[in-house]
Amino acid sequence: MSGIQPTDLEPVAMYEAKHSEKISSISEENGETLEFDGIHDGLEFPTDEERVTLRRVSDAIPWNAYLIAIIEMAERFSFYGCSNVFTNFIQQPLPPGSHTGAGGPTGQSGALDRQQQTATGLTTFFQFWCYVTPLLGAYIADAHLGRFNTIGLAIVIALVGHIILVVSAVPGVIETDGAMGAFIVALIVMGLGTGLFKSNISPLVAEQYRRTKCFIRVEKNGERVIVDPARTVARMYLYFYLFINVGSLVGQITMTYAEKYVGFWLAYTLPTIVFLFCPLVLYAGRNRYIRSPPTGSVFASAMKLWSLAMKGRWSINPLKTHKNMRADDFWENVKPSKLEKNGTKPSWMHFDDHWVDEVNRGFKACAVFAWYPLWWLTYNQINNNLTSQAATMSTHGLPNDVLSNLDPLALIIFIPICDFFIYPALSRGRINFSALKKIFAGFMTGTAAMIWAAVVQHYIYKTNPCGYSAATCEDADGNALVSPLNVWIQTGSYVLIAFSEIFASITGLEYAFTKAPTNMRSLVMACFLFTSALASAIGEAFVSLSTDPLLVWNYGTMGVLSFIGGIGFWISVRKLDQREDELNNLTAGHFENDEKHEQRA
């Protein structure tokens, strides 16, 4: 049976408005449930028994999603291409006689000469800022501009930041104290643009897939399988992350050599040029993306709902308050139908029971994210300390910051392996490697990466001519003396971090999208990204460990925190994991903001 379908040129909001009379019409035909909404027309839905017994697979990914992924790839090329050389730009001194910061084949590139602690502090601040600003981007998108328009605004802001960054590195500026001021301003402006971009590009890519209900498909071999929208979204984010890392890998490698052989001005200019592809591709596909319009201040209504649910549940005893918040009737008692029946429904409640269920699910997702800062601490080591660690080892002519490219390279290799081999094998074996189990695995592989880094650092101290002063070891002529250990032994840390990203970071994007109410997706995504900002803030407290002779303690501390976080995470979500299918299949709720309600009244 064929039904109405939205055209590629018709945004989702316009489509649903035009065909609203056909939405949510359900009938029975030959014992098969058929739904008429322009999205699920003619599909057969699984029975309760089939949900348990049939194998689950993903649907095809819409090509529009790949187009948006190209925008993200260009943005990540520019972001990582620049930020990959930040550590050397801040930490290392300008080479003698250089006006560009290039170290050449045998020298060390540098510019500001502010030492490792300052480099770690500034790069950590930049990470923090980039992941705080998504909260603002989510508010602007959900309440005022919509995701598409907010992304356009973000691109303009980020482009201005890129230009200021280039100015900080041009000859004539890089040799002066003004370079530091321009560099910091560039970080602030770029971080604002990045935050507005990040909170909206991830939900936009997943929104290109419209189906929300599991349905039956018969494979070529006759096997009946369940096509699971949650698995489709997970697969979309796998390849979205693949595009991210293609951009970051190419950007990091090329800019590392641009920095080493030409100078920082080129390492900042080339990413700016590539960044210009973002507005071009965004504009070219403007009529083909499925877009959700802004819906007003959804966050305010959600918080009012939570405050109402909390009435009478506060206690001086925090454990009792926590228990009351987790009670089965916490959200049930504030559903509009129940309050209306009791005559206590407040005037601001312009939504239905299903939207309350969605908000409940969104709050549960944010509770899951509360553990993420302890995982991000391990990932953030690749942005600063592991780059500095490479500079104390024998690089054999390689730039010290080229090793960080092992992380995106490993992701590019292992993401397709997970998609085509590992995950399907687990599915055929009826092993439920759910989203929350993946996140737990991410914590454990992150812990293993830090153990590897701590062991490498221990042997650097043992083999460096200056012992525990490895980062500042020089001979009488001022040439750096390094450990004879080959820099490639860092590979283990980067590969393990890559696996932890596949399990924790990619799954976090998926979880933020699938568990958020449809009109709060940017906000919940921003909450997920905000956990990285919290990790950066926590990381600032550990900057004092980012120097000799304490670096073994630094990596060991990060590993212990990640391990504790993983155990705490699983203890808190193990029951939620059993409800994964139920949460993914909630019926979408209806919400009206106050302005629309007043207009309708």
From TrEMBL:
UniProt keyword annotation of Transmembrane helix present: yes
Q: Does the keyword Ribonucleoprotein apply?
A: no
Lineage top rank: taxon: Eukaryota
Enumerate the InterPro entries for this protein: MFS_trans_sf, POT_fam, PTR2_symporter_CS
* Gene Ontology terms for molecular function: dipeptide transmembrane transporter activity
- Ranges that cross the membrane: 122-141, 153-174, 180-201, 238-258, 264-285, 409-427, 439-460, 487-511, 523-545, 551-573
Gene3D superfamilies from the entry? MFS general substrate transporter like domains (1.20.1250.20)
Tell where it localizes. Answer: Membrane
Keyword annotations from UniProtKB, A to Z: Membrane, Transmembrane, Transmembrane helix, Transport
Q: How does it sit in the membrane?
A: Multi-pass membrane protein
GO cellular component entries: plasma membrane
Q: Which family does it belong to?
A: Belongs to the major facilitator superfamily. Proton-dependent oligopeptide transporter (POT/PTR) (TC 2.A.17) family.
Which protein, by its recorded name, is this? Answer: Uncharacterized protein
Instruction: Write down the species.
Output: Tetrapyrgos nigripes
Lineage, top ranks: Eukaryota, Fungi, Dikarya, Basidiomycota, Agaricomycotina
